[in-house]
Design brief:
With 289 residues, this protein is an alpha/beta fold.
Length: 289
């Protein structure tokens, strides 16, 4: 399936690529203005001009800092090495004032494209490393193909690479509790699925889960990809990433022992254990190579 057919299946349009985002700053948060006036909250760290900029995409119920401040920690470590970064809040997440009902694969891609166009307008000879965590992986993989001419590599952490076996016919207790084919169909009919009292996934993103085949799209790409996945991940199982890594060449996978969904050792919520520290170190080393 080519890029065009994937995007058609997901009801996406890519006419927004030529949009040059503007921005304003409020309380140390950059607000990048996208199409139709959409405000995208972002955190930008300047790096050395000759280094690539890392653009990050968070997961469900996350933010530009991400769960356990994972993305913030990565940005801080990269800053020490002179590597800049841009982290955004997707619609309905973090400091975004947009409705969560607008959140979808299409809106994720739009927000990332707007952020990259803002960077292109700001930085000469821009080179990018894309980084996606969990549900932020699919849009990052699409954007990596859209901007393959300036992408150095794509790094994924505990990525959702298979909507079918993560959400439609889930293989984990977390997936079965929150999703499943019947729940997704009901959610499309009724307007969404509640993951908690304040977090409701809308129709559009549920349609993405129902229709989009991420692996089929990635088969047609060739940019370098590096996957870090915890062997003890009880939300998005590592076996899915392991199988995904076989679909084409130039996909490298690193399985992290005793590691849950993200980079931390099971039970470590402070990035204090040796395993958590080593996992973070490996990700930073891969990005900075």
């Amino acid at each position: 399936m080519k890029l065009k057919s994937l995007l058609t299946t997901a009801s996406l349009q890519i006419g927004f690529i030529d949009y040059k985002g503007t921005c304003k700053v409020k309380e140390n948060v950059i607000y990048i203005t996208g199409r139709k006036g959409v405000q995208i909250p972002a955190a930008f760290e300047e790096g050395i001009d000759t280094n690539p900029v890392v653009i990050m995409a968070h997961g469900l119920q996350g933010s530009k800092d991400e769960y356990l401040n994972t993305q913030l920690r990565i940005a801080d470590e990269l800053k020490k090495l002179g590597i800049g970064s841009l982290r955004i809040d997707f619609r309905g997440h973090g400091e975004s004032e947009q409705s969560l009902e607008e959140f979808s694969l299409k809106s994720q891609i739009e927000d990332l494209v707007t952020a990259i166009e803002w960077l292109k307008n700001k930085e000469d000879n821009l080179r990018i490393i894309t980084l996606g965590i969990s549900f932020g992986a699919p849009p990052i993989m699409v954007v990596s193909e859209l901007y393959s001419s300036i992408i150095k590599k794509c790094v994924l952490i505990a990525p959702v690479v298979d909507y079918k076996n993560t959400f439609l016919y889930p293989v984990t207790d977390w997936g079965r509790e929150n999703f499943g084919y019947k729940k997704i169909i009901e959610g499309i009919c009724t307007g969404g699925i509640n993951l908690d009292e304040k977090y409701r996934l809308g129709r559009e993103v549920l349609m993405d889960i129902l229709l989009v085949d991420v692996a089929q799209f990635v088969k047609n790409t060739s940019y370098p990809m590096y996957i870090f996945h915890g062997e003890s991940d009880n939300m998005v199982p590592a076996i899915l990433s392991k199988e995904f890594s076989k679909i084409r060449s130039n996909i490298n996978i690193f399985l992290m022992k005793k590691t849950e969904h993200g980079l931390t050792e099971v039970g470590d919520e402070e990035f204090l254990s040796n395993i958590s520290i080593e996992n973070m170190k490996k990700v930073i080393e891969e990005i900075s190579e």
